[in-house]
Structures
1.
Amino acid sequence: MDTSRRIVIVGAGGRLGAALAREYSRDFEVVGFNHAQLDLGAPEQLRSTLGGLDFDVLINAAAQTNVDRCETEQEEAFALNAEAPRVLAEICREKKARFIHISTDYVFDGEKREPYAEDDEARPISVYGESKRDGERRALEANDRALIVRVSWVFGPDRPSFIDAILKKARDEEEISAVADKWATPTYTLDLAAWLRSFLFDRAEGGILHLANGGECSWQEYAQWALDCCHAEGVPMKARKVGAASLADMKNFIARRPVYSVLGTGKYHQATGEVPRPWRGAVAAYVRDHVR
Ligand SMILES: NC(=O)c1ccc[n+]([C@@H]2O[C@H](COP(=O)([O-])OP(=O)(O)OC[C@H]3O[C@@H](n4cnc5c(N)ncnc54)[C@H](OP(=O)(O)O)[C@@H]3O)[C@@H](O)[C@H]2O)c1
């Protein structure tokens, strides 16, 4: 354990933040703040709490992640997703600490049909996407060594996500369906914690980095594979097949979602020589280790 290196995690109560806090606390000193302990909407609290703390790296995994809420609560979305990252970036610049900020595939409009690269133009089609894109820009303007890490379809053991919701349904119902005409790539929080390790202390350059598991899928393919893994592991499930729904059928969605938002990880490969494992392997590992 290297206690000479201290990592602050903002959003340590969230799906990704909790995973990062647990994984990194095995090797480093980690100070985590959940929502109740630190409010992104209170810049003066960010300054007073973090200003008095010594740390080498700050990872911001907190955000307003409710995509539909952002459409109706725009001011809140920009305060939490755009202004707070700017303040955090500034605090880190003053402290000469590394700032790693988590962003999203929803900064893209989804018109491409091949993976998005980091320098593809971000043209969001929702308030959530706009607020996250502004957060990236403001963070980089305030601190050009900030590292913006875009991820997609985050899943992991610390908070339920799409995969858990669909498996919960599949336990009780024979007929289930998921959207078949929207594509991205799942990102396993435990894999992300491993990929990010080489960017914590050793690489000082800032910019944007895409991180996700390999390949691409629709929500239907993602759900079908998760279900297949459950059957293979002997987890009792009523459903065997996931039917196809269309994005247009999702009448409860308020915000527009990009149809295709696969993140290309070529830059990560160039920087590290590593390739993220394919999403099917990550989902199989999650089901094996965390689904009962
Ligand atoms: N989930 C995905 O599929 C996905 C996809 C692409 C990108 N991302 C990005 O990945 C990052 C992590 O998301 P996640 O999946 O871990 O989502 P999450 O579980 O919703 O985590 C977000 C965390 O932010 C906290 N938070 C919300 N408002 C806050 C505030 N005013 N002050 C302080 N904390 C606040 C939440 O706390 P409470 O819940 O207690 O309010 C929650 O713990 C985010 O930047 C998100 O934009 C996620």
2.
Amino acid sequence: MTGIVVVSSDDATDPTGAMELVGGARRLADAAHGSVIAVIPRLRPHERGAQLIAHGADVVINVEHPWLAEYESDCMLPVLEQICERHLPRLVLMEADSHGHDLAARLAFRRGGSFVNNSTGVGIIQEEINVIKPIHGGRATVTLVPRNFPIVVSVRRTSFQPGVPDGTRTGEVQTFEPRFDHDPRKVRLVERASDDSRNRVNLETARVVVSGGRGMKGPEHFARLEALARLLHGAVGASRAATDAGWVSAAQQVGQTGRTVRPDLYLAFGISGAVQHVVGMSSSKVIAAVNTDPEAPIFRVADLGVVGDCATFLPALISEIERIQASEPLSPPKTPSVTK
Ligand SMILES: Cc1cc2nc3c(=O)[nH]c(=O)nc-3n(C[C@H](O)[C@H](O)[C@H](O)COP(=O)(O)OP(=O)(O)OC[C@H]3O[C@@H](n4cnc5c(N)ncnc54)[C@H](O)[C@@H]3O)c2cc1C
């Protein structure tokens, strides 16, 4: 079985997702005596090929074309079609990020394959590829056995473990120059605005996530969550109510239509615990919640609960942590990662 992993265009700032996909694809390929091809959509640092091979890729294809300098699905689609035509993969994996959502269904359609989005696991049972995805807002999962190949799956972050890199693995780095019979670009990039969430701790790999919801009452109070996250070397997340209100970036939303997080500690401030939120954080090791409503559903998933007002509890918690850290500083995690 040949499996293709499409490395996200955001890989330049955060390669974790690519390494997870390659690690997962490697395990599937080993089970099916197959190989893993990683496709990098535009030029990357030279060492990225070696990194992908160390994580399990047999072949790394660097796609080189000036039109791919910026991600655009209309350009990536014919490129992937050509690569699939050449290698006839049974499985194509890409991240369930905005680019993956954009590309996966179109590629499956063009190649006459099957498409599964937002998967949380892919396995091989009795030689058949099984794809798991959450349904009913995460209250249940289904296992699908798609019949048409290639099976194109967009996979949620943290669904696969990246695996331990093996520097002795050998593989081949190829360059692929795609053919375009016409200019497929329909969109012109006019401006790139910087996202102030960059260079913070990555939400999806953070050991501590401090999240706020509508109960935080406004964007100004999120500064307190930022302060708490800094003290704990964590990342700031939010409920959809908070991101829809524009209090924080949409990239910080946790839940069904946001990010899936699995930190050691998840702190929820003023979040009711709607199922669409819980599905994105219920795998956290320890969940603590602060809410004025003792009946709030968040307390059903919380290991620790405080019935109280964030406006008073949060400053008290911050000053207590500051007091403790003044005598016993907390060292940052060994491999801090930056958000994409
Ligand atoms: C298709 C779909 C997808 C969705 N995807 C997501 C998603 O990905 N992520 C997500 O989060 N939501 C998602 N939602 C929305 C979800 O259903 C909820 O509406 C949302 O999570 C509510 O956010 P909240 O808990 O911040 O707000 P609310 O439900 O309004 O809860 C606010 C909480 O704050 C408490 N509170 C109020 N004041 C204080 C105070 N001073 N101190 C402490 N507590 C206080 C209240 O008691 C209440 O429990 C989705 C909905 C749909 C339909």
